[in-house]
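Thread title: Can someone regenerate the structure for this chain?

I was given the following input by a collaborator and told the matching structure tokens would be attached. They weren't. Posting the sequence so someone can regenerate them.
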Amino acid sequence: MEREGKAVLSEPFPTQGDIDNLTENAITLVEKLLGDAEVNRTRRDENNRKRFARLLKDTAAISLTMSLTDEVMRMSSPRRAAKTFRRISKSANVSGLGLLDYVGIKAISVVSFLLPALVIKVVHQRVRMAAYGIILPAEAALLSRHIERRKKDHANLNINVLGEAVLGEHEAEQRLHSVISMVQRPEVNYASVKISAIVSQLLTIDFQGSVKRISDRLRQLYRQAQLSNTFINLDMEEFRDLEITVAVFKQLLDEPEFERMNAGIVLQAYLPESHGVFADLITWSKVRQARTGGMIKIRLVKGANLAMEKAEAELHGWIPAPYETKADVDASYARLIDTALTPENAIAVRIGIASHNLFHLAWAIEVARSRGVLHQLDIEMLEGMANAEALAVVQETGSVLLYTPVTKHDDFPAAVAYLVRRLDENTSVENYLRASFEMQIGNERFTEQKERFLHSVSGRHKLSTQSRRHLLVRHDCNAAFKSGHFENQSDG
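Best answer:
Regenerated them for you:
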């Protein structure tokens, strides 16, 4: 599951210029992966691809879909849900939804006056069908069958138990036990958990208290993981949780009980602070590995909480913590890939490159090959979002790790937040996955994403890694107000 080993270099270590020149190799590899994906694509994959491409071109269809998942699905009263459904169905159109869904929505909108409960049941079933393969059933028999099917594809699953936001200790205890129960299953060998899912009170002003509360809960999970030989990954959420999450991770893995344990943590490229944290984790992990033999894994993602970070910053009058542009985020990701994949780091740290951007995945593969550290690299993608491309990655590298959200049937309405976040993330004009639904070798979408990739690789050299939240000066709120733009006064 977590392979170890030291790098063997058959050639001199490549210079920085050599690494820059790998972009052509990466582009060639992307073309190969796209070609293989076309061969791998099933009829269902093709239908989903066309559906997403159609949806993402129509803002009204996107808004309707997000309202269905984030409003109608969450309402307990069928009558209220039906009323909301009728309101949002007015914006339905054929171009964004396709003829079948358009006719269906219009028809049951009329029926909902007479049979609201039945109509909402149909809506729930349609949303479940749309989420099929993206959110998996947590029930043991159903999930086991899927895991076995994926093993035949040489794909391992990183299981993430979904649920509502934890507001109290009772809910936190329940979520912890649901994750532990999942880890106890013999077919599950990899799982992710976020600290906010197992502890209700995370207070940055009570740093030590928060670290203690999380550590007490996480020890229970780590103990079961060691018994079950299951790899545990700590997910990263909000910027404010970064320091606490890293502190808990290092503290527990330095304890005698877990000092030989292999475990993982996520870093988000859209935060400038991730570069300093990465360097700190590398230094610490090398000392730990030399002392105990225990390794860690760092999963590198671009970051999926941008809208929330911007909203929270605006509410508090702060500078948003993430980089300001998508170009800077991509350059940050390229810089982390370059920094991470080295023989010196491979001794103590595995690297997960988690993305659907085939250009960055291909570049990571080429960098790892040039440095003799392919054994250090895991390519990671989202379950159900690009199955054909994932299989193409398997054909190239031998394996892929799929981040797999799961939920019980009765808890599905609580899991729709994941769908909403995926929709929000993938509808951005600059998002690679949005472009990928129409991408073919050499066409406009391909050329556009290739140029973005090339800029990210060259831009990594001059990218600032200074904190935006703590070092940038916020301009005068009174002046902003006088100009007709309201801003909150910073509360910290």
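The longest helix spans residues 207-228.
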